[in-house]
Automatic annotation (TrEMBL), chain A:
Keywords: Hydrolase, Ligase, Metal-binding, Zinc, Zinc-finger. Residues 16-100 form the Acylphosphatase-like domain. It catalyses: an acyl phosphate + H2O = a carboxylate + phosphate + H(+); C-terminal L-cysteinyl-[HypE protein] + carbamoyl phosphate + ATP + H2O = C-terminal S-carboxamide-L-cysteinyl-[HypE protein] + AMP + phosphate + diphosphate + H(+). InterPro entries: Acylphosphatase-like_dom, Acylphosphatase-like_dom_sf, Acylphosphatase_CS, Carbamoyltrans_HypF-like, Carbamoyltransferase_HypF, DHBP_synth_RibB-like_a/b_dom, HypF_C, HypF_C_2. It comes from Nguyenibacter vanlangensis. Belongs to the carbamoyltransferase HypF family. This is Carbamoyltransferase HypF. The lineage of its organism: Bacteria, Pseudomonadati, Pseudomonadota, Alphaproteobacteria, Acetobacterales. NCBIfam families: hypF. Pathway: Protein modification; [NiFe] hydrogenase maturation. The active site is at residues 31, 49. The keyword Zinc applies. The gene is hypF.
Length: 761, 330
């Protein structure tokens, strides 16, 4: 498609233009691309990186062809957001050069880390090439980006690769126009680049022995073990103090993924996305039972770095040596102790992982920005993101509408932060639960970094309504005007922002817990939102919450609460005979000692407890996941719910589930079916009354596919238009976007009454 | 107990109940105010109002609590409490018998503590304008020369001590409120700590940096206050924190964290590290410090976090709660 410079072209009058290209244009091979394109078209001038992206001056005759090609076929990792061209006087210069970067802060985008490109992958296994089996192979089209970047522009000097000076071979490639590594800032080879502290053969041998290996990857340390080795997986569970929470797995390729799980075309496309997310798939039985105990789904990901490919290569060789078959699948879990942030630092790895891993493998390239694995699933037949991290951040979410800059600090669990600048929302990566000093510091640090990086002075900081979240405290102590946003409103506002819903809508938040405006415990809410006004149309009928957060960890408490509410507290001791305090708690509930909650999550807990599926949970949503795994064909229980205006009461359902002789599978089907029926009836009744058809869904419970899919179907059947979150997590990971979007809406609508101190600014 | 018509007679009756219970030379002069001599040096002055439900609880009542509470506030400054004033707001209809009980308990507490209630006031308000009885006590104490305890003196390296089992008072109150009372044997720890404090000052002198009584909000709130006042961090060891088995069980049942449950007869001491053992020994010799122990260290921390190391090598933050324990987990 590119025309070669011809005699006819050069006879035309020379023209010079300045071209400014914005978007994701640094660290993606853009300058070499411009260089090649200019040479192809016989043009002179220069190209450079600066704070606003790429700047070029181009002179010659066939400028139109150049510009057309620039727009038509940019480098694969680039995302061009704008190209501004203006004429300037020609200077008759000859030749084309890549000039030194101009340093000044601006609006350019940071590229995300990319898995090895096909060319690098081929070189990786080419015995004749100089990158043969080199774990840190990369080029302009692939390799680490955000994880190694200290500052923009994306020049080697601004990355942790600055510690490695180029060998003559690498320097030659770096300077050779037409080479794939021409101006590749991450270029490195075995003789000059980063090194692993152990060989892949050593790692493979350890894994085949059933060992647990900590390996420093692109964004942090992971723990690996053979997913087919039950003893190894159990050992990992014991050492990590993680009894039941499912582990993600890493497979060599799509064929291996197909052995571990059912990979349909949609799942395949998700697995192959450049962010190489963990994708939740329907599992087959090949992996050890302890990888995802009792669950029908398993998290699978494809290699996201050269080292992963080398690992499977080495495993195959090791297995051949041993005369066994190679592990098809590895457990791959973040190498942190339960509740602690991801480890990125070699020293911290040795200090914290010594008793956890049998072998700790580091390398000498520092990780500047730690990044977890991203997680995706399918909700209502389309991809949905459950955790935004590697490969997704720091790309902004387009809100399609300009507005004032705001900051939002998230809530408590799965915390993220969000800054809106112009029409773009920058949603941070998963920071973690704000229950440890480390996580709280990371959270504050993320705010400082992102604010500085984006060069933004927010007008307002939005936080959760809960007064005791460390994030809320950060907001209160920031000195900025603070807008507390109700938890479930924020859940829904996140969906509205991401899916660009502007009109009035109904929102169904199906969640664990959020502090309500009435000081109550909310969690199963139907809201009506119109512009920046909203109100609570309905909610689940409150059930006593016996013991606050303890009730969230111990489903038996919700089971007892329901029994006592049904007037059957005397059954508590017998039903929960493993819990010595069950009978006493029933007495307390009956005496009215506890406040209620309208939480959907706690309703799942109650059902799981009453069906004998889960008495105590070792990780969030364990009971709900177990309940989902048991259900196969949801069906509604006749008269299973009572709908009284705004109150949706599932006590009849729970009464049925707690009947003696109720089989757990039947109960799981009835629970899902009745909840879907009740929620859609509640929503439909208000939708009809208000004449609103758009229904947004959000909240942690949407991770339950049966519930999400069933509800979407039921709402459609009722003539409504259900809208789910897609690129933003439905759980608390998406809250900061909703908080920020809501704050901006309030600023724009002039409803500033709720923002104390705002008038000061 | 009635208000309005015939009120004067009633007020007189009440007056007599308290006078009889508190009797001491200064009070018995029946002047508008108590007059006493002061010598040079510093005087500590503290006041606190007591509104507690239930008014009678296992191990104490609102009266003894009001005496102990103000004595303890004075003691935490290192002072020797000497006199106290008491004000009462009583709801019309409050049983006279209960009032007598409260007065007797206050009298006993003040005599046992050797802190005389030397002046006071009583108001009876209409039904519904108060909840039973509210008591305000105000106390003065003498600060011995050389003693200067205050919340901003914790330094990195210092040791954090407590004088005994934590959370007894709050657990007793809440168990009673929730209806657990009849089957638990938790008693409030309400007690006057000034004699213990005197022993501590004798043992450690200026190595004793500060004292606090972890009342409302428990040690969670109190340690956070100290960390902020002193611009330091505090690192606790979970296994070192003394909580009685029955208190832990009641907290577990009710979903409370003992760290945030009030004590009314315990103190937190922060002491220079080299004096920690000597202080501990001195505390353990006193009946109210028998179960004293070291629960953690003061550390350097720009964020002034109070943290706690847990069994699994992890740490968790001991938050500064805004109010009640609200659920947090989504
Ligand atoms: Fe939530
Ligand atoms: Mg006080
Ligand atoms: Zn490549
Ligand atoms: Zn090299």
């Amino acid at each position: 498609m590119h025309t070669l410079p011809g005699a006819r072209d050069t006879r035309r009058a020379a023209r010079r233009v300045q071209v400014r290209i914005g978007g994701v244009v640094q660290g993606v091979g853009f300058r070499p691309f411009i260089y090649g394109l200019a040479r192809q078209h016989g043009l002179s001038g220069y190209v450079l990186n600066d704070g606003d992206g790429v700047l070029a001056e181009i002179e010659g005759a066939s400028l139109d062809g150049f510009l057309a090609a620039l727009r038509a076929a940019p480098p694969p990792l680039a995302r061009i957001e704008r190209v501004d061209v203006r004429d300037i006087p020609p200077d008759g210069g000859k030749g084309f050069e890549i000039r030194e970067t101009i340093h000044r802060p601006g609006h350019t985008r940071m590229a995300t880390d990319a898995p090895p490109c096909p060319s690098c992958l081929q070189e990786l296994f080419d015995p004749a090439g100089r990158f043969y089996l080199y774990p840190f192979i990369s080029c302009t089209q692939c390799g680490p980006r955000l994880t190694i970047t200290r500052a923009l522009p994306f020049d080697r000097a601004n990355t942790t690769m600055s510690a490695f000076s180029l060998c003559p071979d690498c320097r030659r490639d770096y300077q050779a126009p037409g080479n794939r590594r021409f101006h590749a800032e991450t270029i490195a080879c075995a003789s000059c680049g980063p090194r692993l502290s152990a060989s892949t053969d050593q790692i493979a041998s350890a894994l085949c022995d059933g060992a647990i290996v900590a390996l420093k990857g692109v964004g942090g340390f992971h723990l690996y073990c053979d997913a087919g080795n039950e003893a190894a997986v159990r050992r990992l569970r014991v050492r990590k103090n993680r009894p039941a929470k499912p582990f993600a797995t890493l497979v060599a390729d799509l064929a291996a993924a197909g052995l571990v799980a059912i990979v349909d075309p949609l799942s395949r496309r998700m697995l192959e996305r450049p962010e190489r997310p963990i994708v939740l798939l329907a599992r087959r039985t090949i992996v050890a039972p302890s990888v995802a105990p009792g669950l029908r789904q398993i998290g699978v990901m494809l290699p996201s770095a050269p080292i992963h490919h080398l690992l499977f290569h080495a495993l195959a060789q090791e297995a051949r040596r041993r005369g066994t078959s190679a592990p098809a699948c590895l457990v791959a879990t973040s190498a942190n102790r339960a509740g602690m942030p991801l480890i990125t630092d070699n020293g911290a790895a040795h200090a914290q992982l010594a008793g956890l891993a049998d072998l700790i493998v580091t390398h000498d390239r520092d990780i500047e920005n730690g990044l977890d694995d991203s997680v995706m699933t399918v909700i209502d037949r389309a991809p949905a993101c459950l955790r935004r991290a590697r490969g997704i951040v720091p790309a902004p979410i387009d809100l399609a509408e300009d507005g004032p800059p705001v900051l939002a600090v998230g809530a408590y669990l799965k915390a993220t932060i969000c800054i809106i600048r112009g029409r773009e929302a920058f949603l941070s990566q998963h920071i973690g639960d704000l229950d440890s000093p480390q996580a709280i510091r990371r959270h504050a640090d993320a705010i400082r970094r992102m604010t500085a990086f984006l060069g933004v002075v927010p007008l307002v900081v939005a936080c959760d309504l809960h007064p005791d979240y460390p994030s809320s405290r950060y907001a209160q102590e920031s000195g900025m005007p603070v807008l507390p946003v109700q938890h479930h409103l924020a859940h829904l506002a996140a969906v509205a922002a991401e899916r660009i819903v502007r009109g009035p809508y109904l929102g169904l938040a199906l969640d664990g817990h959020g502090h309500g405006h009435d000081g109550g415990n909310w969690g199963g809410e139907l809201l009506h939102v119109d512009g920046s006004t909203w109100h609570r149309l309905g909610h689940l009928a409150p059930v006593p919450l016996p013991g606050g957060d303890r009730a969230a960890r111990e489903p038996w408490r919700m089971g007892v609460a329901v029994l006592a509410t049904l007037g059957r507290g005397d059954e508590a001791g017998r039903r929960f005979h493993t819990v010595p305090q069950a009978a006493r708690l029933a007495g307390l509930v009956a005496g009215g000692a506890f406040p209620g909650t309208s939480s959907m999550g706690r309703l799942f807990d109650a059902a799981a407890a009453l069906l004998g599926i889960c008495v105590r949970q070792s990780h969030e949503a364990e009971a709900a996941m177990a309940l989902e795994a048991l259900a196969t064909a949801p069906r509604g229980l006749v008269n299973g719910y009572r709908l009284n205006g705004g109150t949706l009461d599932f006590l009849p359902l729970l009464a049925a589930l707690s009947q003696p002789g109720m089989d757990a599978r039947t109960g799981a089907d009835l629970f899902h079916g009745t909840v879907i029926a009740g929620l859609s009836a509640l929503t439909a009744s208000h939708a009809a009354r208000l004449g609103v058809r758009t229904v947004l869904l959000a909240g942690g419970c949407l991770a339950n596919r049966l519930l999400a899919d069933g509800l979407a179907g039921a709402l459609r059947n009722a003539g409504l238009n259900p809208i789910m979150p897609r690129s933003v997590p439905a759980n608390d990971g998406g809250l900061s976007l909703g908080q920020a979007a809501w704050a901006r809406l309030c600023l724009k609508d002039g409803t500033r009454a709720g923002i104390p101190g705002y008038e000061r600014t | 107990l009635s208000h309005g018509a015939g009120g004067r007679a009633m007020a007189q009756l009440i007056d007599e109940i308290f006078r009889a219970a508190f009797s001491n030379p200064l009070l018995d002069q029946a002047n508008d105010c108590a007059v006493f001599p002061v010598t040079g040096g510093h005087i500590a002055l503290s006041t606190d109002s007591y509104v507690v439900s239930p008014i009678f609880f296992p191990g104490g009542d609102i009266g003894s609590l009001a005496v102990h509470g103000t004595i303890n506030d004075l003691a935490m400054a290192g002072s020797v409490p000497v006199y106290m004033a008491a004000g009462f707001v009583i709801e019309e209809g409050f049983p006279l018998r209960d009032l007598q009980r409260i007065a007797a308990s206050m009298g006993t507490a003040s005599r046992a503590s050797d802190v005389a209630i030397v002046t006071g006031d009583i108001k009876v308000v209409e039904r519904g304008k108060a909840d039973g009885v509210f008591i305000t006590t105000t106390g003065v104490g003498r600060i011995p020369p050389g003693v200067a305890l205050s919340g901003d003196q914790a330094r990195p390296g210092d040791k954090v001590l407590v004088s005994g089992f934590l959370g007894d008072h709050g657990a007793a109150i809440m168990s009673k409120r929730a209806g657990l009372g009849f089957e638990t044997d938790i008693l409030s720890d309400s007690a006057a700590l000034h004699t213990l404090v005197a022993e501590m000052i004798r043992a450690s002198g200026s190595a004793l940096r500060l004292l606090r009584d972890p009342t409302r909000g428990g040690i969670g709130a109190t340690l956070n206050e100290i960390a902020h006042q002193s611009s330091v961090g505090i690192m606790l060891r979970e296994e070192a924190i003394p909580v009685r088995e029955n208190v832990a069980a009641a907290c577990e049942l009710l979903g409370l964290d003992p760290l945030y449950v009030a004590s009314e007869g315990k103190l937190i001491a922060i002491v220079a590290p080299q004096e920690a053992t000597r202080l501990l020994q001195a505390m353990r010799k006193h009946p109210l410090g028998r179960d004293a122990c070291i629960i953690g260290d003061v550390i350097e921390d720009p964020d002034h976090f109070v943290q706690m190391t847990t069994g699994f090598g992890g740490g968790r933050i001991v938050d500064w709660l805004f109010g009640e324990h609200l659920p947090r987990i989504c």
